[in-house]
């Protein structure tokens, strides 16, 4: 009986230590927002085509974008959009060759801005991207 109780406490101790040292995984959680709210929060809003994708240090991704139309802020014709690599870390997944309406933050004077899964960036078709 004493041995069974001892094994129970040892198992409980190991389970507790595992929970403490492994931590809890966190997923990206976005507060729902309208496009108007996303526009208000962004420093820059522009339409553009994704030209290239490259991995950056610190689990980031850089998308090279040619801007077709500025909606808010001032961005150069060619700008890098930086985001987290993982969607679990709120990274936006963009597709090379596709057009997007990008909601971004940051100072574009260095030709870089940032976006996230929660920022409002979305795909647009080519006709809509050029027609608006």
TrEMBL record:
Gene3D superfamilies: 2.40.50.120. Its main location: secreted. It comes from the Bacteria. Residues 1-27 form the signal peptide. It is found in: Secreted. InterPro entries: TIMP, TIMP-like_OB-fold. This is Tissue inhibitor of metalloproteinase. It comes from Lentzea miocenica.
